[in-house]
Amino acid sequence: MLLKFDKIVKTTLFHFLLYWVVNLYSLTYRIKLENEDEWLLHLNNGGKVLLCVWHQQFFAAIRPFRKYGSFNPSLMISRSRDGEIVAGVAQRSGWQVVRGSSSRGGKEALRGMIEHLKQSCLAAHIVDGPRGPAGKVKDGVIQLALASDAVIVPFYTHADRAWYFKSWDKFFLPKPFSKVVISFGGVIKMETAKDQDMFENQRVELERTMLPFLQVAPVKE
User: Quick one: pLDDT at residue 89?
Assistant: First the structure.
């Protein structure tokens, strides 16, 4: 049964149907984008931008981020079964998908992301995915930004009503008709790391910047 499902999730029909389910569901949200002017100005002036988010929070951005499809942006997604599902939706949303993760095909995927980002000037990266731990920024985002001379722009999503999954990242899914706010942080320019200590300091600083925006499931009384 599991093998049959693995085959289904790789089909064009499955990806097509899921794409429309996700977008129709997301149409119920009242979405507000905040603070995108700064990084869009940098991008339109010829700069390179790497948008970054926690694994927990990417779902609500799928539909509104279609507006950036004209930039031919790229996104790294793991080679897992779950990654296959996400990749199918992302590609139909106008994003160029590079498959790989720290546990499988990571070096090749990172090289592919660097090439794409240098050409298109826009990419997105999930900083703690696909397996976590939650709230831990991995090295890849810093390596990608430095190698492509891109600025890092964290973004965060918040919903006034949501379901929280019992997963490693406490993934949250905004409920239908909820108010969703996607807020972009300031532009972060990383200096070329002279040694491993400097590289680690940059990673830790980005982690400290993003940690306060992890969503916590409300305590039930």
Answer: 87
Distance, in Å, from the CA atom of 192 to the CA atom of 60, rounded to the nearest integer, reads: 33
Residue where the block lists tokens 């603070």? 35
Q: What is the mean pLDDT of residues 132-151?
A: 94
Place of tokens 């994003």: 95
pLDDT tens digits along 7-63? 776 788 888 898 999 999 999 999 999 999 999 999 999 999 999 999 999 999 999
Distances (CA, A) of 82 to 44, 77, 131, 173, 218: 33, 9, 11, 16, 26
Residues with Cβ < 8 Å from 184, sequence gap 6 or more?
33, 34, 35, 36, 38, 39, 51, 153, 154, 155
Contacts of 197 (CB under 8 A, 6+ apart): none
> What sections of the chain are H helices per DSSP?
2-8, 12-26, 37-44, 81-92, 106-120, 139-148, 196-210
pTM (predicted TM-score): 0.91
Domain ranges of the chain: 30-67+120-212
Asked if 159 and 179 touch (Cβ cutoff 8 Å), the reply is yes
Q: Which residues pair with 155 in a beta bridge?
A: 184
pLDDT at 103: 61
